[in-house]
Specification:
The chain is α+β, with helices and mostly antiparallel strands. The chain contains seven helices and eleven strands. The protein has helices at residues 2-12, 42-46, 101-127, 205-234, 248-255, 295-298, 307-311; strands spanning 26-33, 63-64, 70-81, 86-97, 144-155, 159-169, 177-186, 191-192, 265-267, 271-276, 289-294. It is globular, with a radius of gyration of 21 Å. It starts with a helix and ends in a 6-residue tail after the last helix. 35% of the residues are buried.
Length: 317
């Protein structure tokens, strides 16, 4: 446990994604009951230090209600290689108990996601070994590190939607890298979902997501700017000391209707949750941003036979 804490503290102090192919390190799988863990906010899972940056606000209600006979558990890839000087700690959920064939497919998909990140990290580390001085004497005890934690956005009989947060750091890098991976899985059909699966064929879903997201982000920016103006004027300084609002071009660049801007999406009970990385839509100091696009804003383009429509169906009284 000391090793894991040390790794997370190192990783959360760092920014520059690395990756790599296995090279003689030891590997073990740990299992633990995590009914409470999976319901915890991402900030709590990803940042062991209270002052560490976290998602700016929680815009949805996590649902953790596994089907009868199922319970979520946590497993982890813990790998440490003294020769290559790297350390990996990636936690991921698995469904245990009365596991259906489709739930088993979900378990494989999640495990493969974690294993792929570990593999890519090691491969990149191996490819960049020339940057390390002979014997790594210049870096002392430092190691290349990858830490991954997850949050369950939604879990019920029909769907599982996960958001992973990764911290990667390579010796010699000025900063660590923080990035996300997401997985929304349909337990009824036994397959991972693409964003397009939620909408009618040909629907301009990116435009709809972008319009709502940009409006929400602009509103937040205006509110924050008003608060900052009030703060500096209360201190007797001119309002200009509050700086300026985020330019509209930044919103169009970071949240415009391009697929790349909406790769980090999840299904929640209330709608589609979009995670924008730090620096993507606001200044880097503001951290990552979460936007909920409610089903009501997407009603006209949702596929009435698709997964989102099932999640959005009125509940029987």
């Amino acid at each position: 446990m000391k090793s894991r804490t040390k790794l997370l503290l190192l990783a959360s102090a760092a920014l520059a994604a690395l990756a790599c192919a296995a090279c003689g390190g030891s590997q073990e799988i740990e299992t633990a009951d995590t009914a409470a863990l999976v319901a915890a906010p991402a900030a709590q899972l990803l940042a062991p230090e209270p002052e560490a940056p976290a998602t700016a606000r929680r815009v949805f209600t996590p649902v953790v209600a596994p089907g009868e006979g199922l319970e979520p558990a946590e497993e982890a890839i813990n790998e440490k290689n003294e020769k290559q000087r790297y350390e990996i700690d990636i936690a991921f959920p698995q469904l245990k108990g009365r596991v259906s064939p489709n739930a088993a497919k979900f378990n494989r998909a999640v495990r493969e996601l974690a294993e792929r990140e570990a593999h890519d990290f090691k491969r990149a580390d191996n490819d960049s070994k020339d940057r390390h001085p002979s014997g790594d004497r210049a870096w002392g005890e430092a190691r290349d590190t990858l830490a991954g934690r997850y949050e369950v956005i939604h879990l019920d009989d029909d769907f599982v939607s996960l958001r992973f947060g990764f911290f990667a750091y390579g010796r010699g890098a000025a900063h660590p890298t923080q990035f996300h991976r997401v997985l929304s899985f349909d337990l009824r059909s036994g397959r991972a979902l693409d964003l397009e699966d939620l909408f009618r064929p040909g629907a301009q879903h990116l435009r709809a997501l972008a319009a709502h997201s940009i409006a929400d982000l602009k509103r937040r920016d205006e509110e924050e700017h008003r608060r900052e103006v009030a703060r500096v004027t209360a201190e007797g300084r001119p309002a200009s000391y509050a700086g300026v609002r985020t330019p509209d071009s930044d919103f169009q660049s970071g949240a415009g209707p391009e697929a790349e801007n909406y790769r980090a999406w999840n299904l929640a009970a209330e709608g589609v949750v979009v995670t924008f990385a730090a620096c993507q839509v606001f200044g880097c100091a503001a951290g990552e941003q979460e936007v909920l696009v409610p089903f009501s804003a997407l009603a006209e383009i949702l596929n009435e036979h698709g997964p989102a429509a099932r999640l959005n169906a009125p509940q029987p009284r």
